[in-house]
């Protein structure tokens, strides 16, 4: 009969039951611990994917998106974080205690908004400093919402910026006033079409058409010292500068596919704007600036 360390003798069946119970408890403990580890890894993976999704949707460059996602994962205790980006989606893989989880997210374009990008960067820094853990970071991330300026303030500022360009190009105050009106009306059209969720290409073409028709009146009636400046300055709000800059930055930093995709989209927006301007010129009979 087996003898325990205290000197008592027990039956073989009792001893086997004791060993079996010990192994069962040990297995249960290991399973419980493994479940906690997997739960944490899943939560961190969701956090990283959501952060990357928001960054990509609101216009951050690809290098920044990948860097923030990796930093957040490592700050949460992951061993490795791998990120793959495409024009409308992302894939992230986390490795924790030799366990791997891969998740994918779609990332539709939601408009450029640097406030969202800045807020996510702040969350990342606080995680690295130990101020936030992954659960608190998730709560703060869920509370981030794009801040929208008052639409009429945007209309006025766009009108003033385009009108200022007309003055810089040598136009007088009449040119300034007509450019202000044309670009402001064009921005209202752009906002209304965007609010109704139309394709951005249709939005840009329609906005360019309306703006050019209004600004062409300065040429038809010879208003101001250089009326052709009105037509050129009033459509400057449609130049896709941010996507073009991001496209070049992505290609220079190794994200060739992302850079090409963004460059193609910016080129299509430029083409749509040109088509709208040409259509307006055809109707008004004003050719050339």
UniProtKB/TrEMBL annotation:
Residues 46-283 form the Threonine/serine exporter-like N-terminal domain. It is found in: Cell membrane. The chain crosses the membrane at residues 15-32, 149-167, 173-189, 201-223, 229-248, 260-287. GO terms for biological process: succinate transport. One of its GO terms (molecular function) is transmembrane transporter activity. The keyword Membrane applies. One of its GO terms (cellular component) is plasma membrane. The keyword Transmembrane applies. Keywords: Cell membrane, Membrane, Transmembrane, Transmembrane helix. It is a multi-pass membrane protein. Pfam families: ThrE (PF06738). InterPro entries: ThrE-like_N, ThrE_Dicarb/AminoAcid_Exp. Belongs to the ThrE exporter (TC 2.A.79) family. This is Threonine/serine exporter-like N-terminal domain-containing protein. It comes from Vibrio tarriae.
């Amino acid at each position: 009969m087996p003898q325990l360390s205290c000197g008592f003798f027990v039956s073989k069946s009792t001893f086997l039951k004791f060993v079996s119970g010990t192994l069962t408890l040990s297995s249960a403990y290991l399973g419980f611990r493994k479940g906690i580890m997997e739960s944490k890894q899943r939560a961190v993976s969701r956090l990283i994917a959501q952060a990357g999704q928001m960054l990509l949707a609101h216009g951050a460059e690809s290098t920044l998106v990948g860097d923030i996602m990796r930093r957040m994962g490592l700050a949460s205790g992951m061993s490795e974080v791998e990120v793959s980006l495409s024009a409308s989606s992302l894939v992230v893989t986390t490795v924790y205690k030799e366990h791997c989880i891969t998740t994918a997210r779609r990332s539709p374009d939601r408009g450029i908004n640097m406030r969202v990008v800045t807020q996510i960067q702040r969350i990342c820094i606080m995680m690295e400093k130990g101020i936030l853990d992954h659960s608190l970071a998730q709560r703060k991330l869920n509370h981030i919402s794009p801040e929208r300026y008052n639409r009429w303030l945007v209309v006025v500022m766009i009108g003033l910026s385009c009108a200022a360009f007309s003055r810089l190009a040598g136009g007088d105050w009449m040119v300034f006033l007509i450019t202000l009106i044309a670009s402001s009306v064009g921005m209202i059209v752009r906002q209304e079409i965007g609010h109704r969720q139309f394709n951005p290409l249709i939005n840009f073409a329609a906005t360019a058409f309306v703006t050019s028709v209004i600004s062409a009146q300065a040429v038809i009636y010879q208003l101001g010292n250089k009326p052709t400046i009105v037509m050129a300055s009033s459509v400057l709000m449609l130049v896709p500068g941010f996507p073009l800059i991001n496209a070049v930055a992505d290609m220079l930093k190794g994200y060739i596919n992302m850079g090409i995709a963004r460059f193609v989209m910016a080129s299509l927006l430029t083409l749509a704007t040109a088509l709208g301007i040409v259509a307006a010129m055809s109707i008004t009979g004003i050719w050339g600036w």
